[in-house]
Amino acid sequence: GQNHVALSFDSYTIHQAIRAETAPIPALLRKLQSEPILSLGRKDTGVDFHRHDENWIAQVSGRKVWFLAPPEQNMQQFRGQEPCSFKKQSKMIPSSCTVHPGEVLYLPSEWHHATCNLDDFTVGVGGRGETTLVHEACGLCALDDLLAALTVARADDRDVFDRPALHVCAAAGCVDGAALLLSQSAFAASIDARADYLGNGEQAIHVAAKNGHIKMVDMLVDR
Q1: Residues 72 and 115 occupy one common structural domain
Q2: For the chain, N or C: smaller number of CB within 10 Å?
């Protein structure tokens, strides 16, 4: 609809490109990348009040207003309203702030939040949900980091969404990372297990196919 923004929670390839062009993500935020976030919108579009796991958003272009309330606050009366209408109701919202390009907003778990874009073209990137070093390296396809993480990782490690590392490599299209995992005997066993993925039992090859990573599918089939 005209009053909504485009949100993606599996924009791994975009995050890989941004990682190559920007300074390292601060340590406090690096652990919150189980799901990479990409937000695109034009002026006077936004997202209604909702809440989820702790997350962060770095504003790349344009300004965005955030309307915030702590978890214990009852925000039911505001649900279903046009997000940008909250600018006129600011006295009724517990807190609000405007995030400019180059600034980062961190949001603790389960905080209510809604947003409104102030400029013609707004872009934000971030992450949601706590992750492990292996999962993070797979998502960014950072092979040196993955090698280092494997020295302390366990094959049964899961991220906050209960995904094994191989599934994240598959979602990110990181063929070399997946091959590296599968070269480790403990991780190789997970390719045959119907490891739980958000409760639906998807295997890594299903995740790769769903995200359109043909080379990853071919590699997993050959295994």
Answers
A1: yes
A2: N
